[in-house]
Amino acid sequence: MWLVLSSVFSLIASLKFHAPTMFADHAWLSYGRAYPAWSHLLVYGFCIPAGLGVSLWLLARLGRVELARPWIIAWSAELWHLGVLVGLVAILAGQTTGYEWFELPRYSAVILFLAFVLITVWAFVTYTRRTVEALYPSQWFVLAALFWFPWIFSTATLLLQFFPVRGVVQAAVNWWYAGNLLNVWLTLVGLASTFYILPKLLGRSLQSHYLALFAFCTLILFATWTGIPNHAALPAWMPALSGAASVMSLIPALAVAAIVLLTVRGTKMSCGGGPLCFTRFGAWALVLVTVSLALSSLPVIARVTDYTWFGHGQTSLRIYGFFGMTILGAIYHIFPHLVGANRICPRWMRINFWLFMSGSVLFALPLMLGGIAQGLKLANPNVAFLDASKAALMAFRISTLGELLLLAGGLVLLFNLGAAIVGYYRVLCKTAYQEATEDLEPLGVKS
Amino acid sequence: MRSSAIVFLCAFIALSASWAGFVLAPQLQLGRAPQEKATGTESLYPVARPGLAAQGAEVYISLGCVYCHSQQVGQEGVKCEIILSDAGTNALATLGALARLDANLGKPETLASLPRVIKRVSTVAAAEPIVKPLTDAGAKAYVKVVPVGLDISRGLGRRRTVAQDYAYDLPVQLGTRRAGPDLANVGVRQPDLNWHLRHLYAPKAEVADSTMPPYRFLFEQRPAGKGNPAEALALPKSMVPEGIEIVPTEAARVLAAYLVSLRVDVPLEEAPFTAPPAPPAAPATNSAAK
Question: Do residues A323 and A393 lie in contact, with contact meaning Cβ atoms separated by under 8 Å?
Fold first, then answer.
């Protein structure tokens, strides 16, 4: 649901570039508020809760154990969503913190932190109760992700909001947090799902556990240093180190590519728009976005891509193309287990796949290409600034089309899952009704 | 990897390393950096923004201006020109010093037309050993430092911005995107408060091709002649309905005061530049907003 709302705000934001005068009389619909509302809802409203849901499922499934205290986890999830809602209202009302990817004010951040810690505790209890001793690669990724988020989130909350550090140190903390959230956390959870879904659906083992271990170690070792842009007004060693780490992040990406290739190789299974399609597309999007991150952190290329729409496109490709697709794959795989098979309409799932895939491609790639066009013009001091901005305008229009497709995809997902849940509960009610009436009938006969 | 302890250990080592690198280290390096003296003066830099501008920063943040406007200027290096402006009383000693520097310069013609550039180098450190023997010989020579780079040639600033420039900003609004121009020096480029007010109300009134959305909700409409006409914006007639005045709200005023206060025009030791001989006097950022 948050995904849909996020798309709506994203549309509002991008419409500003088509008709800047629209909504000029309403503060809460201005670009500077709609944009953070979009990113806030996308990350905190959709990515993290969906990622947590899939993580919990993986922990329970791989450990062959039932979730510990599911009611606490469910209420914590509600608490989380309350925190997201509070944050959204605050952002629209102008209470933003002013830090990108961390706009939620402190009262909302505290709620989110509490909810996450509660979920983490019971996730960990579930994990320790597992009946299968040996660990599967997905479990490493989930455990690391559960460990990662409280640390980075508390650091950001404390050092940016409660005891703010001075000057550009804030920017360093902000970029470190955003880099770890987007480039590490989302990747950890996404890959946990990929390494479970691919072998499971293909009916063969992951090729191989050693490669997965290698990808895991190099990912947490290198990607955690990414995130500081090349142009940052920080001591020069920081962007240099961060750029080097972005290049080194190619190593885990190549390992992921090898794992996917080796695992899929030789199987003649058509994915038919199902979870397999989602997952495979997501994995390739991850490889693509890591290559683009490595390239754009080279100073020669960063000179062109910095400050342009390129970065926005790149992040969108990571969130929608990699994480969104992978997690949707996992959701479509898990849902039939929860509400019973045949409740998900395969045709709508296929439509969802095509909408979301084309949407994320049409959203991200034009922004990246337009960003390059814009950057090439900006790199020439004789081209007027506005002419350079206009170079990206056409690409921007296409990307709005991508946003529309994503919105449609989100609606289809909502409809599909909603229908499945309604169907599930209807059957539950029917059975309950039947049971109830069965009890009654003998009574009726008696009287 | 069979044991969960190893997973946690790996994650802990990786995350604590980057935490130490990107959170702790900059805090130790910069977090308590004292004010510095601006090059060649006794005045401390930076100073906190004046009251109205500080309020305006809050409006800037709440409106999310940072998503389209960065506030940081880069540079790729500097050009240093060593300029001899006066030969001093002992021309022979000066010529001797010049000859040791470069045989071609040690001729009387060098001193014929002063001031003149006697050498160009690419760092300040390289320039100082050249200037020293000349001043020791009694001549007057100085180094003119001109930063070079894309942002500089676009006129976004005179020098790059450095950590020191943001010491009092909370939160800092460095920004990573330039959908609109960089604002680190917008107060230098456009010191007129009323220009900013008109531009906020209707960007196209000031910049014909502007892609910036108008911020009309920061302004009020009132019938003409109902208040002090000096408060109303002087907009083109086509943009205002007949008999109506556009009056900025408090939020618009402080925002404009903040924009005008954005100026990074003080040379620092780590980011030197030589100001042109007679820089225009900086307008007071606080008093101009009524």
Answer: no
Lowest mean pLDDT among A96-100, A344-348, B56-60, B154-158: A344-348
- Residues in chain B closer than 8 A to A134 (CB atoms): 2
Shortest Cα–Cα distance, B228 to chain A (Å): 24
How far is B104 from chain A, CA to nearest CA, in Å?
36
Residue with tokens 């939020």: B251
> What ipTM does this complex have?
0.87
Task: Strands of B11-87 (E only): list them.
Answer: 36-37, 44-45, 77-86
pTM for the complete prediction? 0.90
CB contact under 8 A, B26 and A94: no
B100-145: pLDDT as tens digits = 888 777 777 777 777 888 888 888 888 888 888 888 888 888 888 8
Q: Which amino acid is at B9?
A: L
The average confidence (pLDDT) of chain A is 85
With a CB-CB cutoff of 8 Å, which residues 188-207 of chain B face chain A? 203, 207
Residue B211 to residue A379, Cβ atoms within 8 A: no
pLDDT at A20 over 50: no
Going by C-beta distance under 8 Å and a sequence separation of 6 or more, which residues neighbour residue A195? A136, A137, A138, A141, A206, A212, A259
Tokens of A324: 């969104």
Does A30 sit within 8 Å of B172, measured CB to CB? no
Show the tokens assigned to A3: 């995904």
Number of H helices, E strands in chain B: 10, 7
User: For the domain bounded by B77-148, which CATH number is listed?
Assistant: 3.30.1390.10
Which class does domain B36-74+178-261 fall in? mainly alpha
